[in-house]
Design goal:
With 954 residues, this protein is α+β, with helices and mostly antiparallel strands. The protein has five domains: 136 residues, de novo design (two linked rop proteins) (Up-down Bundle); 95 residues, PAS domain (Beta-Lactamase, 2-Layer Sandwich); 111 residues, Beta-Lactamase (2-Layer Sandwich), CATH 3.30.450; 166 residues, Reverse transcriptase/Diguanylate cyclase domain (Alpha-Beta Plaits, 2-Layer Sandwich); 241 residues, Alpha-Beta Barrel (TIM Barrel). Helix 1 crosses helix 2, helix 3 packs antiparallel against helix 4 and helix 22 runs parallel beside helix 24. The N terminus is likely disordered. The site of one magnesium ion has 4 residues, from loops. One of its GO terms (biological process) is signal transduction. It comes from Methylorubrum extorquens (strain ATCC 14718 / DSM 1338 / JCM 2805 / NCIMB 9133 / AM1) (Methylobacterium extorquens). One of its GO terms (cellular component) is membrane.
């Protein structure tokens, strides 16, 4: 794999070299070696042939260049000699000296040319003999020319001429020899060349034959090494391919063919294994199929072209009423009478058909027939009784759904994922004035809108549908309201369905809208009195404040009104009378006002008035006072309610705009502050706001914020006052009384800060601290002395008080029966059911509960019945007045008597004198508390006191 990815040359070189190095053991190696050898032989042959040609070329050089050229030059020299002879002769015969000189020059030139030609001829001949003859010829000419000079021109004898000719003849002889030697040597060169060529031809023939033989040997070897194993392998492969998996695969060597043959053996084995596995799988699939057919709850029957049953599973056999064990090829008509056979026989033609039939036992069968290739058919019979039942059910449900849709109060349209109408109801058609017959499933909402447009001229209905279409296109769920006619407002609600479509409901909300409009009007009125409510009052104040800038002198007064003793009326005479009183009050107030003024009920017995057109400045107070006077005077007359004569007073606080402020909030708050002042002054009074009230308010706020920090700063401490058993003068319990040590104000009385803590909600935290501290202190006292803890009404607003008590007991380890909780009637005034439940829970814990300051409220007796108090504490005001003439003594007597009859301990508070003590003893009061015994003292002192007295008691 990695090798094949390498560059081909690299791979080949590497493998070929490797093959050579491995000694040609692989086929590739052998082929490589064989071709290497053949290449080497060819290269040698080529080299040798080139060498032969080069040798032949050299011979040609020698033959042509040298021999022929030498002959040519020798002949040229012979010519030069002949011309020289002629020139010499002429020169000897020339009479004119000028001519002689010319001839002498010519002889000179010819001599030089002769010598040069001879030199070249000797040089090219490359023959020693020729060289010698050339030198001899040269010498002969030299001798000849020398002899010529010896014989002057005047010696013109025959001897001279012969002597000279003899010299010339010697030269000619040498030249002839030169030519002959040159030609002879040329011939011998040619012979040598021929011999060389003949030798080369023989050598080439031999080498070619050798190469052919070697190639034959290589081919033979390749045949033996490759072709035969390939043929064997191919035969084996063909046999394996033909499925002959038992074929013997010959064993190969350790080369590629060996590997190939071994791979083929493995392949053969693998194919055999795979085939075995497949056969096994097919067998199991067949048996599974057979099991499936047999076990199928559907009846399966195969009938051949002749109408005979070829196969029937158990279910089909049962349906056909035949024995499944019977051999096949039984005519289907034999099973006539069975519902399945009858239905199959009744089916026309041979095509695929489905029929349903009803069996004798009341079941429904669905029979599906499909033709087989052999001309018969296969039939599948399914019991569809359940399906039929479901279909019937579905039909019934659909009918019910249709009925529901038709009777729906809302119009409904259901659209599919493509926006085509699926379902709609009659109400939709009625609402939009469309003919139900004109609506078709598949219509788009636009088509529906067109229908609506065509069937009525009401453009507003189309507006709704167009808007709905736009929402649909954006794929938005929506709820929108739109009037589609003057008398019809429709609320559309459109949301996607799980199938990707949309469902839209159209509800006629006209009546609801009208009702809401009425409610909105009512929301501005006080339901009980019909007066304007707080919201309208606020708006009127805003309006009046906004007009302040409009003209000099324009002002108005804000009056806050509170009914005196209204709560008593409500509590004593009941809520219906209370409500009647409020209605009558509203009427009376209204009667005192001008049209431009506004009176509103702010809640409970709180009313407020905006007095318009009050002149700013000194007249303002006069105008507002006049109204206040008028109002208070109107309340002098008692109200007659359901046979009861009721008198209630009115307290009024007044703020003036712009004198006391211009913002509605400030004016209302100022009037409210003034109302507190009016109430404090006495019932049936009015008071104007002044800045001092604001100062008081700020002081109160400062106190509030100090109070919030007081617990964290550890500014609280507890003092304890003993409660004594009057008969034996021993301490029965001690009351824990809270003291606030303010860093600047000094000791602040609980009477001053407890109401504030109640209003601001700090009482919860303070109360928990008191409980924890009192319990842990009491845990150090003798076990027969209890601790009494005051619990405020505000702490009963939730069940936290129970948790606080439990935590305090658990933390201190004080037994529950040693803790006494003192509550006032006010606890029972609010939400008495919850409060009573809380009190009972506390009682179940084992804690004692005392009614504190008894006699100061006005319905105490009923409260005593509602809860099993352990103790009644008679308020100190009665004790104080015991000696004075009046009812105090009688009241004390009756309370003590009541306590005794109910089994409740009575304790008198505020005993300061021996006379008071004596009288209380005479009246039979059980316990007493007061300065006579001890003032409230710090915990260290009380500890000493209770320890000493506890010891005495013991
Ligand atoms: P209270 O529960 O009726 O407590 C008795 C009050 O009468 C105490 O006043 C006590 O000092 C005072 N007193 C006792 N003997 C005499 C006497 O012989 N003559 C006179 N003139 N007064 C006497 P104090 O401590 O100022 O407490 C006033 C009220 O503050 C308590 O009335 C109680 O309602 C409330 N209070 C005190 N501590 C707590 C507290 O921890 N939690 C709550 N929620 N209220 C507390
Ligand atoms: Mg108390
Ligand atoms: Mg008290």
């Amino acid at each position: 794999m990695s090798l094949s990815r390498r560059p081909f040359g690299f791979s080949l070189g590497r493998t070929a070299v490797g093959a050579v190095l491995r000694g040609g053991r692989t086929i590739r190696g052998r082929i490589f070696l064989a071709f290497l050898m053949l290449s080497a032989i060819t290269a040698a042959l080529g080299g040798y042939a080139a060498f032969g040609i080069m040798t032949t070329g050299a011979l040609v050089d020698k033959t042509y260049d040298r021999s022929l050229m030498a002959i040519n030059y020798a002949r040229a020299a012979a010519t030069d000699l002949a011309m020289l002879q002629a020139a010499v002769a002429r020169a000897r015969l020339a009479g004119d000296s000028a001519e002689r000189r010319t001839l002498e020059a010519r002889i000179e030139a010819l001599t030089q040319s002769f010598e040069e030609d001879l030199e070249i001829a000797a040089d090219r001949a490359q023959s020693e003999r020729a060289t010698r003859e050339a030198a001899a010829a040269k010498d002969a000419v030299a001798h000849w020319l020398a002899a010529r000079r010896e014989f002057g021109p005047d010696q013109q004898t025959v001897d001279v001429w012969q002597a000279l000719d003899a010299h010339a003849a010697v030269a000619e002889q040498h030249i002839d020899l030169l030519i002959n030697f040159t030609a002879g040597d040329g011939f011998s060169y040619r012979q040598t060349a021929r011999a060389d060529v003949a030798r080369d031809v023989r050598l080439s023939i031999f080498a070619t034959s050798l190469a052919i033989v070697l190639s034959g040997i290589v081919a033979l070897l390749l045949l033996r090494q490759i072709v035969r194993p390939v043929a064997d392998a191919s035969t084996v492969a063909s046999r394996i391919a033909a499925g002959e998996l038992t074929v013997r695969v010959p064993e190969g060597g350790d080369d590629e063919f060996g590997a190939l043959l071994r791979a083929m053996a493995v392949m053969r084995d693998n194919i055999a294994a795979m085939m075995q596995e497949e056969v096994a799988q097919r067998r199991s699939a067949q048996s599974l199929l057979a099991d499936a057919v047999q076990g199928s709850i559907e009846g399966i029957v195969v009938v051949d072209a002749g109408g005979c049953i070829v196969l029937a599973n158990a279910r089909a056999a049962a349906l056909l009423g035949i024995d499944q064990a019977e051999p096949g090829h039984r005519p289907l008509s034999d099973a006539r009478g069975s519902a399945v056979a009858d239905a199959l026989l009744a089916m026309p033609g041979h095509a695929t058909l489905t029929a349903e039939t009803h069996t004798a036992d009341g079941r429904w069968l669905r029979i599906s027939r499909s033709p087989t290739r052999e001309g018969g058919f296969v039939a599948v019979c399914s019991d569809v009784s359940l399906l039929k039942e479901q279909e019937d059910q579905l039909k019934r449900s659909n009918a019910q759904l249709d009925a529901a849709l038709s009777n729906m109060l809302q119009g409904l349209c259901l659209y599919d994922a493509e926006g085509g109408l699926l379902v709609y109801n009659r109400r939709f058609c009625d609402m939009f004035g469309v003919d139900a017959a004109a609506l078709r499933p598949g219509m788009s909402i636009r088509d529906v809108a067109r229908l609506v447009e065509a069937s009525s001229d009401n453009g507003r209905a189309i507006d709704l549908l167009v808007e709905q279409e736009a929402l649909l296109q954006r794929g938005l769920s929506a709820s929108l309201c739109c009037p589609i006619r003057t008398d019809c407002i429709v609320a559309l609600k459109q949301q996607p369905t799980a199938e990707g479509g949309w469902i839209a409901t159209y509800e006629d909300v006209t009546q609801r809208y009208e009702a809401e409009a009425r409610i909105i009007t009512m929301a501005r009125k006080d339901a009980l009195t019909g007066l304007a409510n707080r919201m309208v009052f606020g708006e009127r104040l805003e309006e009046a404040a906004a007009h302040l800038d409009e003209g000099a002198g324009a002002g108005f007064a804000t009056l806050c009104l509170d009914l005196d003793r209204f709560k008593e009326v409500n509590d004593t005479l009941g809520h219906p009378i209370g409500d009647g009183l409020l209605r009558s009050v509203a009427e009376r107030l209204q009667g005192c006002l001008r049209d431009t003024d506004l009176v509103a009920r702010l809640g409970g017995d709180e009313f407020a008035i905006v007095q318009a057109g009050v002149q700013a400045g000194t007249h303002a107070r006069r105008d507002a006072s006049a109204l206040a006077k008028r109002l208070i005077a109107a309340f002098q007359q008692p109200f007659l309610l359901d046979g009861h004569t009721v008198t209630v007073g009115l307290s009024i606080g007044i703020s003036l705009a712009p004198e006391h402020g211009t913002s509605p909030e400030k004016l209302l708050k100022s009037a409210d502050l003034a109302l507190y002042r009016a109430k404090a002054t006495g019932r049936g009074c009015w008071a104007f706001f002044d800045e001092e009230m604001d100062v008081e308010l700020r002081k109160r706020r400062a106190l509030e914020s100090d109070l919030k920090k007081a617990v964290g700063n550890g500014e609280f401490e507890l003092v304890f006052q003993p409660i004594v058993k009057l008969d034996r003068q021993r301490i029965a319990s001690c009351e824990a009384l809270l003291r606030w040590r303010h860093p600047e104000r000094g000791y602040v009385s609980p009477a001053d800060f407890i109401p504030l803590a109640e209003e601001t909600g700090t009482i919860g935290e303070i109360g928990e601290w008191v409980l924890r501290k009192a319990c842990s202190e009491a845990a150090t006292w003798p076990s027969n002395i209890r601790v009494a803890v005051n619990v405020s009404a505000a702490q009963f607003k939730n069940a936290a008080v129970v948790r606080a008590v439990m935590d305090a007991l658990a933390a201190s380890g004080l037994p529950a029966h040693r803790l006494e909780l003192e509550i006032t009637e006010s606890v029972l005034l609010n939400d008495s059911v919850t409060t009573l439940a809380t009190l009972h829970t506390l009682k179940r814990l084992g804690v004692r509960v005392a009614m504190d300051d008894f006699g100061t409220g006005f319905s105490s007796l009923s409260y005593l019945q509602s809860f099993p108090f352990d103790k009644i504490k008679i308020d100190q005001s009665f004790v104080r007045n015991l000696a004075a003439p009046g009812n105090s003594r009688l009241i004390v007597r009756s309370v003590v008597g009541l306590g005794r009859s109910l089994g409740i301990t009575t304790t008198a508070e505020g005993i300061e004198t021996e006379a008071q003590l004596e009288q209380l003893r005479l009246e039979g009061c059980d316990e007493g508390q007061g300065y006579l015994f001890s003032r409230p003292v710090p915990s260290a002192t009380i500890r000493e006191l209770v320890t000493a007295l506890g010891r005495n008691a013991a």
